[in-house]
Design a protein that fits this description.
The structure holds 2 protein chains of 2 kinds. By secondary structure, chain A is of the alpha/beta class. Chain A is built from 14 helices and 17 strands. In chain A, helix 7 crosses helix 8. Chain B is of the alpha/beta class. Chain B is globular, with a radius of gyration of 26 Å. The chains are: A alpha/beta, B alpha/beta. Chains A and B meet through helix 1, helix 2, helix 3, helix 4 and helix 5 of A and helix 1, helix 4, helix 5, helix 6 and helix 7 of B.
């Protein structure tokens, strides 16, 4: 058992020093009839070699990761992760550290998360950010609860264009609250602003996802204005990369911004670990969920960092805490901080421009050479929906044989969209990759036409 | 203040990344753009374009590496020395786990792929869930909750869904006064009212008091066993029976499972629902705050309520599609995570379970119990133990004696840092005054345990001689004692450029 340092002689001597004759004596408080008889039916112990072989086989059993030319996005994106990100997050000083309960020996974690908070605040244009939440979906749910706490309202308005992954979690979190989760109608894949105008009222929490689940830009300026006029609180769920080129949520009146930070230096990893972020106006900081890192000084006046405003948190406030979140995504937040530091102001914008240019090239290549068209007319940033003549699930199965995953099947979002494919591009795709996709979709469409 | 300290005052150990850069510094290169370049104004409508990109730092790659490496050097971490945080279980993190979790076959997998293309990943999840079932004695496990507190929320929502199906959702959940703060926070989030039940003189739940607070409105009871005092609830069978008689479900906060593997199974004892902390019990590293993973297990009858989708296996399906994510679960509480939870953390836990096997996991728990009792035996002459008798994997000391001499638990914690040792958890559980909660874990050698004992003896001696000296602790750490109240009073949570 290589992870256990004791020899049997050590154990015997330790028992002697404790003053018992056998290990069983230490279990005296466990009634004997409750103790397990027999052994756990779990194979092993296995050596590293054997574990490597077994898990290697399981990893290789994932055709998706190894063989597919993939255009799947919809919230999780396969961007290049610079080697430096892995170098830093693989340092045991970071990954084998615990939550920074003793600040004096945790300055590395604390300062890097303070820097992460600053970068998220700068991206969103808001004043303050927390030290991460589990993922974009639970961050949105936490933001809805926080918004209700701020407004003392009882309604959350959610457009149908918010990602279904997010909505599922939102529904779970709100199921037990008194709040009413109300769907906002959409038109052509975007919020129907006129309908929202009729629906919105004072103290509502309004959620807008921008770009939305179908890749389209929402009319955020109009939505923000409506919210302000009505006295509602706006929560914006945003793609952080898009904030390199899109106006930040603070500009259109969002009091809270949330999102999924996986695209900032993490691999898709079958959807986890992810990185939820949450930023807000300063006046709402005491209602924010989760950990916040703050700067202070030590007793010699030197700058240092601590977890702050802990009186909001569950370990002190218990039943009256702002949220139950405790363990968060510290290491993934570190990855995001390293990623954003490396790319920097210009590299971040260039990446966004690169991705946007390729996405638009892809949309053109697909529509101009195949007879296919985009399902919705609105402007988009990095992904778009192609309408196929047959169900997207069928197209996906067919293209999978040729080693292509053409995108996310929107039928899993909404049965009415079963012929829609959400195609997403990153800087890892070459022009040739995109052309390959375009001709594969074209062929699939033609086949459908003749069938 | 030492002379050296005075010289350094108002200085910084490491500047922020925002102070290091120079405009124009490249830190990263993109592939050449092989399609026509479009500017935001070309494709985005007026009123949508950001006038200037966000003010991220501009730092070259070597400078980024040095900055974060210097920050890394300021951290205590378990690869360096003992991290005896009670209730937090900070054990050694085997390196093979990291290697397994970085296999491209796992990291490259998109959650939107067809199940047919993810057979290996789903198979791993099915097997991990099966092992957790075996360890817990519970019928079924969902791996979706991304952290322990998320598992607690899922557990409470399942209790609510079950009671609702019985015709009465009920309104209250009972928690002992020694419980983790997440318990009352989670049950509140699930829409329940928290009812506290007190501990008796022996540190265990007072069964008579408990009997009085459980009633027909009690939906569930949340119990940590072994408790946060590190002791087994000897009368757990009675407690569960009382709860069940009133129709309440019994939830186990599985944070302390490290003490139980192969020794006692929650399902056998009668628990209905529990969560696991993969980052505690199964050695996935904590990453300075996470990611964790908090699967939930349930006894039979409660499986329909588990978070959805659920990794599943059906041999009746065609080859290459036998493992699937079961999304057709109408009675599920829904999703608590956007996708399948923290998959890479599951990979680490799975590798750890296989490395130990059933036999080894029992040994893990035995050594965890042995190490805690060894430390307790060595220290209880100098500090007051919270209760008599043997402990399980952790124990609580009280520094009341030292407080009378002029030094608090916090001072002791800070002085330990000067010994190169991480401090135990302090001031928790709340029911022990001046609490020092110690969990060495099974991965500490005798030598490391003895070093901890030596430090604690030395500190007790120092307090007897000059308790004032501890007010200056820590003195040998990168920064001195930090002013937490100032941090809360003068909020500085984002860097402002000059």
């Amino acid at each position: 058992m290589p992870y256990l340092p004791h020899t049997d002689a050590d154990r015997a001597e330790m028992l002697r020093e404790i003053g018992v004759s056998s290990f069983e004596d230490l279990l005296e408080s466990i009634p004997t009839d409750l103790r397990m008889t027999g052994e756990l039916d779990i194979p092993g112990p296995f050596s590293e070699e054997e574990i490597g072989r077994h898990l290697g086989k399981l990893a290789a059993g994932n055709r998706g990761a190894n063989c597919l030319l993939s255009f799947a996005g919809g919230g999780i994106y396969d961007h290049h992760v610079p080697a430096v990100v892995r170098t830093i997050t693989s340092m045991p000083q970071f990954y084998t550290a615990y939550t920074p309960y003793q600040a004096e020996v945790s300055q590395g974690t604390l300062q890097s998360i303070y820097e992460f908070q600053t970068m998220i605040a700068r991206l969103t244009g808001l004043d303050v950010a927390n030290a991460s939440l589990y993922d974009g979906a639970s961050a949105t749910a936490e933001a809805a609860l926080m918004g209700l706490d701020v407004t003392r309202g009882a309604r959350v308005l959610v457009p149908a264009t918010v990602s279904p992954h997010v909505k599922r979690v939102l529904r779970t979190y709100l199921a037990s609250s008194a709040a009413d989760l109300r769907e906002v109608p959409t038109r052509d894949g975007r919020i129907d602003v006129a309908a929202l105008s009729g629906e919105i009222s004072e103290n509502d929490v309004v959620i807008v996802q921008h770009p939305n689940a179908l890749g389209l830009l929402e009319s955020v300026n109009d939505v923000g204005e409506l919210a302000e006029r009505a006295g509602a609180l706006l929560v914006a769920s945003v793609d952080p990369l898009s904030l390199a080129v899109l106006r930040p949520p603070a500009d259109y009146g969002a009091a809270i911004a949330v999102g999924e930070g996986q695209c900032l230096g993490s691999a898709p990893s079958y959807g986890g670990p992810l990185l939820g972020f949450l930023a807000a106006e300063r006046r709402h900081i005491r209602r924010m969920p989760g950990r916040i890192i703050g700067a202070t000084v030590d007793h010699d006046g030197r700058r240092g960092y601590v977890m702050t405003l802990q009186t909001r948190e569950q370990h002190i406030r218990r039943a009256r805490a702002t949220s139950n979140i405790c363990t968060n995504q510290g290491l993934v937040a570190l990855a995001a901080a390293v990623y954003m530091s490396l790319l920097g102001r210009n590299g971040f914008r260039e990446t966004a421009v690169h991705v946007m240019s390729k996405a638009h090239y892809a949309a053109d290549a697909i529509t101009q050479h195949t007879g296919l068209s985009l399902a919705f007319p609105g402007p988009f940033f990095r992904e778009f929906v192609v309408e196929m003549p047959r169900p997207a699930s069928v197209i996906r199965s067919e293209l999978s044989r040729d080693g292509i995953c053409p995108g996310v099947d929107c039928g899993t979002y909404d049965p009415a969209l079963e012929r829609c494919l959400l195609v997403s591009v990153t800087e890892r795709h070459t022009r040739e990759d995109v052309d390959t996709l375009a001709s594969a979709l074209g062929a699939a469409a033609a086949e459908g036409g003749s069938a | 203040m030492s002379e050296e300290r005075k010289r350094q005052a108002t200085s910084v150990v490491e500047p922020t990344i925002f102070e290091l850069g120079v405009p124009g510094h490249p830190g990263h290169a993109l592939p050449a753009l092989d399609v026509p370049r479009l500017e935001p104004e070309d494709v985005l409508p007026d009123g949508f374009v950001r006038p200037a990109p966000p003010a991220l730092p501009e730092v070259s790659e070597p400078e980024v590496v040095r900055h974060f490496t210097r920050l890394a050097e300021l951290n205590h971490h378990v690869d360096r020395a003992i991290y005896p945080l009670g209730s937090c279980t900070m054990k050694y993190n085997p390196k093979i786990n990291e290697e397994m979790a970085s296999l491209p076959g796992f990291t490259g997998l998109h959650p939107g792929f067809d199940d047919a293309d993810c057979q290996g990943a789903i198979a791993l999840m099915v097997e991990l869930a099966r092992h957790l079932s075996e360890i817990s004695g519970l019928a079924a496990v969902s791996l979706q909750p991304p952290a322990g507190a998320s598992g607690e929320l899922a557990g409470m929502l399942m209790a609510k869904a079950w009671h609702t199906d019985q015709g009465n959702p009920r309104s209250k959940v009972v928690v002992p006064d020694s419980a983790h703060g997440t318990n009352p926070a989670s049950l509140t989030l699930a829409g329940y009212e928290a009812v506290e039940t007190s501990s008796g003189d022996d540190g265990r739940i007072d069964v008579d008091a408990f009997r009085k607070v459980v009633d027909d409105e009690t939906a569930a009871v949340m119990i940590t066993n072994p408790s946060t005092l590190g002791i087994f609830e000897t009368r757990i069978a009675d407690i569960i029976e009382i709860a069940h008689e009133r129709g309440a479900l019994v939830y186990l906060d599985g944070a302390n499972l490290n003490a139980c593997m192969g020794l006692v199974r929650p399902g056998d004892v009668g628990f209905d629902i529990m969560h696991f902390n993969l980052h505690k019990t199964f050695s996935a590293p904590h990453g300075g705050g996470g990611p964790g993973s908090g699967p939930v297990g349930v006894r039979s009858g409660l499986e329909p309520y588990l978070p959805s989708p659920l990794p599943s296996y059906d041999p009746g399906r065609p080859e290459g599609r036998r493992y699937f994510m079961d999304r057709d679960r109408p009675r599920s509480i829904g999703a608590v995570h956007g996708y399948h939870g923290n998959f890479l953390v599951m990979v680490k836990a799975y590798a750890y379970i296989l490395a130990n096997g059933g036999v080894g996991l029992r040994k893990v728990s035995e050594d965890a119990v042995l190490n805690a009792n060894y430390l307790k035996a060595k220290l209880e002459g100098l500090y007051d133990a919270s209760h008599e008798g043997h402990c399980q994997h952790e124990f609580v000391l009280s520094a009341e004696r030292q407080k009378e001499q002029g030094a608090r638990a916090l001072d002791i914690a800070k002085r330990l840092l000067d010994h190169g040792i991480h401090a135990p958890t302090v001031y928790f559980p709340l029911i022990v005054p001046e609490a020092l909660m110690i969990e060495p874990t099974e991965s500490e050698s005798r030598r490391s345990l003895d070093a901890f004992v030596e430090a604690m003896i030395s500190i007790a001696g120092e307090i007897e001689e000059d308790p004032e000296a501890l007010a200056g602790a820590p003195e040998r750490t990168p920064v001195g004692r930090l002013d937490e109240s100032r941090a809360a009073r003068e909020l500085d949570v984002v860097w402002e450029d000059e």
